[in-house]
Amino acid sequence: MMCAWNELIGILPLWMRQEVDQSGKADAQELRLRLKGPPELVLEGTSRWLEGTVTREDLCFVINTASRYSPWAASTSAQGYLTAPGGHRIGLCGETILRNGAADGFREVSSLCIRIARDFPGVAKAAAGCGGSVLILGAPGWGKTTLLRDLSRQMADTEQVCVIDERGELFPNGFRRGKRMDILSGCPKSQGILMALRTMGPDCITVDEITQTEDCNALIQAAHCGVRLLATAHGTSLREIRRRPIYRQLLEQSVFDTLLVLRKDKTYRGEALTG
Amino acid sequence: MSLKWIGAIMVITGCTGFGLTIAAGYRREVGLLDRLLRALQAMRWELQYQLTPLPELCRKAGTDAGGPIGEVLAALAKELDRNNIPEVNICMRSALEGAGDLPPSVRRLLMQLGRTLGRYDLPGQLQGLRAVQSACEKRLSFLQKNRDVRLRSYQTLAVCAGVALAILFI
Asked: Which domains occur in chain A, in start order?
């Protein structure tokens, strides 16, 4: 298992670092910071309250260090998250600023959810033999990204894999990449898929979390060009995603051949979609 | 007779020293403001086209500016990389502490820069940099406007020194 642990510790307020380091290095999954409350370290199957109270300055500290003191570079914070060095995703919650009816940033942040990125090389071994395009399904925190990362890496042993890493979470610095892997990061998925298709000559394109119609359209276009696709989506069963219009068109156009459905305990089962 | 000579030497040394110190301070301040302006311009370009994160931005602008301003910006980048201080203006204060002797006006402008950096989105940040830039330009033009007055003062000082010498020798 690999984790950019020092990068995580480096973004935390000084008073919290030692306790998080001692209590969570082995199996921490999340660190939740709530204004005027104690920090909560979510471990495998349990959680632990740490000493101390989170202040406004602590929350600002984490946001500043995670964005490297550069709010302009962390434009994703308007969407409610930012990616810290090491690929750790920080979810933001608080009072938003609305412009033209859409959230444009935060007036005040009151909670942070730091999801710790961990890499488990070999976790996708059983799925590596799946033919065609693969869609990974799972609820938040069930290990979709981890499975996608390893599957992409395994495929990159034999194929040219282009990873569209919009949030910089799939292959942050320190995580092992595949031999034939090219990574396009920071670019919106729909745009990135088309760019990769035009310029990189990929055998396979990897994208994490399809959430928008534009992403689906780009995937369909790539599939029609004969490129293999690896993607993830929120959901727990085929029946569930069939009900959602955004994914229905992907299924109707037979973009994916295999479905990997994750369970809460992070195991998964495969399902053939075609034939 | 020797007392007169000692007096003359003291007057000449005092006047020359005073004049040279003021002139050097003036030249140094203008030079530093020029470097700061260059750094601010580099920061604006870099931000506009690259969205560079702040530590890297300071390092690059510091390399562009060079001299004591470059050293302050490099020290600021180092402080930011350390991730021990919550606010950029505190990091700037800490960087300025190790900066040695800087004219108060330059120090003030650098503190203003510290208060601006890392607080806004891109348009806000560019606006903040422009504000520091215009404060810097104002100070430079003030110094340049006063140059003639200052030169006249130095001329008067030299005349006075001559008169003092004449009195000493009569």
From this structure: 2-115 (3.30.450.90), 120-272 (3.40.50.300)
- Show Cβ contacts of residue A177 under 8 Å, excluding neighbours closer than 6 positions: A153, A156, A171, A183
For A134-152, what is each residue's pLDDT tens digit?
999 999 888 999 999 999 9
Q: Chain A residues with CB inside 8 Å of B128's CB? A: none
Asked whether the beta carbons of B95 and B72 are under 8 A apart, the reply is yes
Q: In what order do the strands lie in the sheet with A40-43?
A: A46-49, A40-43, A28-34, A102-115, A89-99, A81-83
Which of B55, B84, B121 is facing A71, going by the closest CB pair? B121
DSSP code for A140:
T
pLDDT value for A146: 92
Are B118 and A69 within 8 A, CB to CB? Answer: yes
Distance of residue B8 Cα from the nearest chain A Cα, in angstroms:
59
Residues 6+ apart with CB under 8 A from B139: B33, B105, B109
Indicate the residue of A14, A57, A70 with minimum beta-carbon distance to B54: A70
- The residue extents of the domains of chain B are 2-169
ipTM of the complex: 0.70
Per-residue pLDDT at A227: 94
For residues A119 and A183, give the distance between their C-alpha atoms in angstroms, rounded to a whole number: 17
Contact B125 A71 (CB under 8 A): yes
User: Which stretches in chain A have pLDDT values below 70?
Assistant: 75, 274-275
**Cβ separation of A70 and B120 shorter than 8 Å?**
no
Copy the structure tokens of residue B60: 């690059």
Tell me whether residues B52 and A70 touch, CB distance under 8 A: yes
pLDDT tens, residue by residue, B79-98: 999 888 888 999 999 999 98
